[in-house]
Amino acid sequence: MLKTFAELDFPGRLIAVEGLDGSGKSTQIYLLKRWLELQGLKVFFSEWNSSALVKSATSKGKKRELLTPTTFSLIHATDFADRYERQLVPLLRAGYLVLCDRYIFTAFARDTVRGCMPDWVRGIYDYAALPDLIFFFKAHLEVSLQRILAGRPELKYFEAGMDLKLSSDPYESFRIFQGRLLEQYLAMSKEFNFLVIDANQPIEVQQSAVRALVASKLGLAAFALSKS
Predict the structure, then answer these.
(1) What is the pTM of this model?
(2) 3-state SS string for 113-145
(3) What distance lies between CA 44 and its chain's CA centroid?
(4) Topology at the third CATH level for domain 13-223
(5) How far is CA 222 from CA 56, 62, 217, 226, in A?
(6) What is the pLDDT of residues 137-168, one digit of tens each?
């Protein structure tokens, strides 16, 4: 039975956000981070695929379109393991609020949709404790697509699921790929107690809901920076 960091008696707490590309989850966790910092709390932020150990290899593989589903899965698993050991666990032991833009559920959804066996994917991450709070930002596919295109002219190859040969049209491929990811997330929602946020709402409304949930479920005063 997987346990949360609180159940494992860590003094820190881990908050993760999940959602489709373009759901606005990264904006929401950034706003949450700033809010917590302004209250004088110990906060650390970590994002998916950011380990210096493997980030360059992942980037090269994507640019050359060399990554098979299994390779993709193992590279991201290596990234996560490095950050988990070097950043997340030490800071949680030190009593920090650790915010993660994507956690193991991203792998559970993406790798499964790309054809990896679900049990095999989960087995790779079976050492990882569960977050204490998991927010899932649920947005309509068209809303997510328009948010992405508002920031840049075109979709990225893997973001649109073009490697799966779902469609020659990147926009249609995006809809199919992200729709399959949504199905995986919704299937995990009850299993892992996702806190589902309506990501179609205005940014301020979402952030207000996120802050209220964090404040009600975590004793924030316990994470105050020492004044000594």
Answers:
(1) 0.92
(2) HCCCCHHHHHHHCCCCCECCEEEEEECCHHHHH
(3) 15
(4) Rossmann fold (3.40.50)
(5) 37, 42, 12, 10
(6) 999 999 999 999 988 888 888 889 998 999 99
